[in-house]
Amino acid sequence: MKSIFITGASSGIGEHLSYKYSQKGITLGLSARRIDELNRVKAKCEELGATVFIYQLDVNDNVATKNAIEDFSSKNKSLDCVIANAGIGKTENIMSGDSSFINGIIQTNILGVTNTLIPAIPIMVKQKFGKLVAISSVASYIPTPNNSGYSASKAGVRMLMDGFRFKLTPHNIKCITICPGFVDTPIVSKTRSTPMMLTVESGAKKIANAIGRNKKTFIFPWQYKIILPLLKIIPDWLILKYLK
């Protein structure tokens, strides 16, 4: 892959994927809301050899996101890969009676993906290849009492990508869903410690390898491949006791 567009590139997984892909001959399109942090990431990526274009945008803005994708594509001979990484996840309080907070999580995490990936589809169909990548989560398989909006949004992302895959495979477009467990990023900075917490560098490496191997759905770390099927038979009270 020579041209890669990444949203949410100012921190966490997006930032470290940018570093992972940075080398001579690679062109990166990096987007995020915080322009100062984007410039910091850009400078390091350029030190590593990449050519970098940055876009200050909020993925909730479908027009701005579409314009950024099309502008980046126009600067390259191809659009090889788009990674919809931007997302939010915070503890919610459904007891408040106010739906605006949970609505914001669902909107950003689902519409942010469609706003990012769909503008790339006509470009990739025309060039007859490409990779669309969405960052979901193992939380998409796990009902949680305080993060139900986040879990629901990430399950929605998985369903979107499964549907896209059926439609786009005939056009030689790979649709890849990444489902990380706990990765040491700002989005989980207040999460209880866990023995399966991965460093962000390790997480980014695993994701890049999965993208390179065209994995349809990639769940990591590997322990979740054992844990997730067990959740179907574990009593709800026991799951709730752990998740409280």
Would you give an account of this structure?
The chain is α/β, with parallel strands linked by helices and 244 residues long. The protein has a single domain, classed as 3-Layer(aba) Sandwich (Rossmann fold). The protein is built from nine helices and seven strands; from the N terminus they run E-H-E-H-E-H-E-H-H-E-H-E-H-E-H-H. Strands 3-2-1-4-5-6-7 form a seven-stranded parallel beta sheet, sandwiched between helices. The mean pLDDT is 91.
Helix and strand layout, with pairings?
Blueprint: E1 3-7, H1 12-21, E2 27-32, H2 35-47, E3 51-56, H3 62-74, E4 81-84, H4 100-117, H5 120-127, E5 130-135, H6 148-168, E6 173-180, H7 200-212, E7 217-220, H8 224-230, H9 236-243
Parallel strand pairs: 1-2, 1-4, 2-3, 4-5, 5-6, 6-7
Helix pairs in contact: 1-7, 3-4, 4-6
Quickly describe the structure:
By secondary structure, the protein is of the alpha/beta class. The chain has nine helices and seven strands. It has helices at residues 12-21, 35-47, 62-74, 100-117, 120-127, 148-168, 200-212, 224-230, 236-243, and strands at 3-7, 27-32, 51-56, 81-84, 130-135, 173-180, 217-220.
The top level CATH class name: Alpha Beta
Q: What is the helix/strand order?
A: EHEHEHEHHEHEHEHH
Structural class: alpha/beta
Biggest sheet, spatial arrangement of strands: 3-2-1-4-5-6-7
Descriptive labels:
7 strands; 9 helices; globular; seven-stranded parallel sheet; Rossmann fold; alpha/beta; 244 residues; 16% strand
